[in-house]
Design brief:
Order of helices and strands: EEHEHEEHEHEEEE
CATH class: Alpha Beta
Strand content: 25-35%
Mean pLDDT: 96
Low-confidence stretches: none
Largest sheet: 8 strands, mixed
Helix content: 10-25%
Number of domains: 1
CATH architecture: 3-Layer(aba) Sandwich
Strand order of the largest sheet: 5-4-3-6-1-7-10-9
CATH superfamily: Dihydrofolate Reductase, subunit A
Number of strands: 10
Structural class: alpha/beta
Distance between the termini: 13 Å
Oligomer: single chain
Shape: globular
């Protein structure tokens, strides 16, 4: 099962200057719990913003740069190569950024969307517009802003109608 996992603003913003829009402690815990023990796929820029392989996961970086190296990560240079790598894994999480999300938007079974209840007008990276008529909401959990979570947000899990 391939899943896009993303945190986005109401305006589809997902990042600024190769950084997350904000820190939401409960969302980061959800991300860690959900992806631990599984394969995560990210683009080079996302990897460089994290600057290390995420522990207890198979870290795969998709990049056009055939000479790119990142210790503790697997490098793939095309969607075909990524799909070939995926075949031995039951759960695959696509974790960004925008270009990678766009490449896999029509290839996933599920979306896990952290919907931040704010707009981010200075963002320079945005998530694609989704056609929600092709998705089935199967779970929604609401979170309120507090000392560790700057904004209200919902975690929404959708399956894709095939």
């Amino acid at each position: 099962m391939k899943t896009i996992i993303v945190a986005k603003g109401l305006d589809n913003a997902i990042g600024q200057d190769n950084e997350l829009l904000c820190r939401l402690s409960n969302d980061l815990k959800f991300f860690k719990k959900t992806t631990s023990g599984h394969l995560i796929l990210m683009g080079r820029k996302t990897y460089e913003s994290i600057n290390r392989p995420l522990p207890n996961r198979v870290n795969v970086i998709l990049t056009n740069n055939k000479n790119y190296k990142a210790e503790g990560c697997h490098i793939v240079n095309s969607i075909t190569e990524a799909e070939e790598f995926f075949k031995d894994y039951e759960k695959i999480f696509i974790i960004g950024g925008a270009q990678i999300y766009n490449l896999f938007a029509d290839r996933v079974d599920r979306y896990m969307i952290t919907q931040i209840k704010a707009n981010f007008p200075d963002a320079d990276s945005h998530f694609t517009d989704l056609d929600y008529t092709k998705l089935n909401l199967i779970e929604k959990t609401e979170f309120k802003a507090d000392e560790k979570n700057e904004y209200d947000f919902d975690v929404e899990i959708y399956t894709v109608n095939k």
